[in-house]
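TODO from last week: model Flp pilus assembly protein TadB.
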Amino acid sequence: MVIYAILTFIIIGIYFGLSLKVGKRYDVVVESFKNQYPLLFMAPVSLYLIDHFKIMERLYSQIAKIQQKMISLYGNRTALQHTRMYVAQLISTSLVCLLGTFLFTLLSEGDTTILFVGIIFTVMIPYAMVAKLASQEKERKEDILTELPEVVNKVILLVNAGETVQQALIRCVTTTQNPNSPLIRELTETVNKMVSNEPFHQVLNDLSKKCGIQEISIFTTTILLNYRKGGNDLILALRELSHDLWEKRKNISKTKGEEASSKMVFPLIIIFVAVMIIVGYPAITIM
């Protein structure tokens, strides 16, 4: 039991020692991610460990997968900063779990079961966090694909009414009822670039790269190939694309419905077992 107390004090001592050594070196970095990540009070120490041991370089193949997801979620410009902060959160969470493992083992007077479970939890939590990040990326792509058909239909109606593609995109952003959706946020950034007189083809290419979704690439390519011609060529191309996007939206909705129904199976099994115990226990006791 003494060894667990020693390990607990060692971890706490190392953390506070590194906190004093780091000082305010990473305050600006941490402040820029305020309210975006948990355990920010531990981020300076974790960032110091990342830089001191060159974790980003030595574990490049593993961290590259995280960075790819950050590119999809936040874009190329801030992906590296988000990746560093996310790795810092992984380190912080692992340290908290490890400290909690030794502390609870100490309080339980050296129970090896708690130690074993705590170590397993400490090892598994980073994988769970990365898996959650992947689910966030998947959810973002599905949200974009769900809203894209409506945007394409608006563009078709507005272009058919005589507006240019640029004006149609601006109208889609300004008249939306859900400004916080992933697609509208990306379109808002695109519109701001157009208003700033950036080249239209470059703006749409940036939109395609930022979203990282095949359907968005098809949408932007269709516009770039036909917007100068205008008229029926653009309308027909967008209508064909709209038909395909609505079919994909139906498939996504169907898949989500199936996933929701499958998630209900486990609670129903638990309820069934509970009912069987409630009904069967009196009969067993009587026998």
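Done. DSSP finds 13 helices and no strands in the chain.
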